[in-house]
Give the backbone structure.
Amino acid sequence: MQILSPEDRAVLWHKTVEGGSEDRESLLRILAMGILDSAGSKLDLYSGGYEAPMVETVELLDASGYLGRDDLRQAFEEADESEEAAAGFFALLADHLRLTADVERLPADARLRALELAHEWRDHVLDRPGKADEFLSVADVAAEFSVTPQAVYKWIREKKVEAEKTPGGSYRLPASQFTRRGRLDRSRLAALQRRLVERHPEPAGNEAEIAEEIRRRRSE
């Protein structure tokens, strides 16, 4: 396994996004392998059958246009710096896949697959081996709330969340402060979004719209 430098990853990402149609399939596959080499290796995702789902992920993001997002490219360049950076990149991948599921021009089966992959990658971030139950990393919180790790660092600086700084300089956040009470269960949210995609050709709606639909159904 040869992990690309941040500069090489930036070049690969740009070449893939800007590449022509004749070599696009090969570039997408190379990018998928580059993601597993860098970010995946930090989370023990390099081996074990993750190649095909990652290729699907990159292809879906390319089809929706989200592969060209600067936040995703920047996170990829930094993905091998630490386990936290890698987890943050996968959390961002999951977030963009959820957005892909709302792209109207994509076939319903592609949007459904984007949803499935979003939850698969998010689960890998939150349920990876060795993660303590009592504390969450910045990447864990970012994945749970569908924000960037930078947003979580801002919450810490503004003392909106409790956090302890480790001797190594990273943060760990007590899990007890993040309660699911009053929040929507994401598995129910995903199930409803899948049903909406299956029934209607128009976009499935964002999470706020789906949340309102769940609340309406509960009140009936």
Remarks:
- The mean pLDDT is 77.
- The beta strands are 135-137, 164-165, 171-174.
